[in-house]
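[User]
Um, tokens okay?
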Amino acid sequence: MKCIDLTHTIIDRLPPYPGDNETQLLNTKQFETDGYSNHRLKIDMHSGTHIDSPMHLTDSKEYICEYPPESFIGEGCIIDVRNRPVIKLKKEYETKIKEGCILLLYTGMYHKFGTEEYFNTHPVVDMEFAQFMVERKIKILGMDTPSPDKPPFSVHKLLLKSKIFILENLTNMEELLEAKKFEVIALPLKIKADSSISRVVARII
């Protein structure tokens, strides 16, 4: 079994989404002076690699901890969409994207994670493609960008209203391009919040 880690490491001052608070990761106790080690983390749930649930941008009252674990595990499907400012539906996707899958869109933008370009000029998903995802009943949309769209976040709202979760700020996705079959495990924290930082891995089958 081989697992590919699709998660950015949480570090102190992790680059935040514009307008969000900066992450603080502090080493509060040191073994040499205190006899043990400890750390304290202060982080927005939309920092680094994380998963959005419907409560984020809809009137849903369900916290992310209320969804069963199997909501975040499923057969993966990856599509190479590099160099496309707008990611549109193509005919071949209709056979490649299976019902209930976790769809990953590889843009290559993760190489610029944390830069102004990463947050402001990332590609976006076309509304027709988003509607297809709803019709195909995918489980999760994941991307190596900060968002599948930009204000007023129509794609976000469409997917979340349909209870399709959104994984943002993924990394290392190119390692999956040649995989014939893989499973995505994207478990959020068991936290009473709208969304959650997550450790996301792909298990090559």
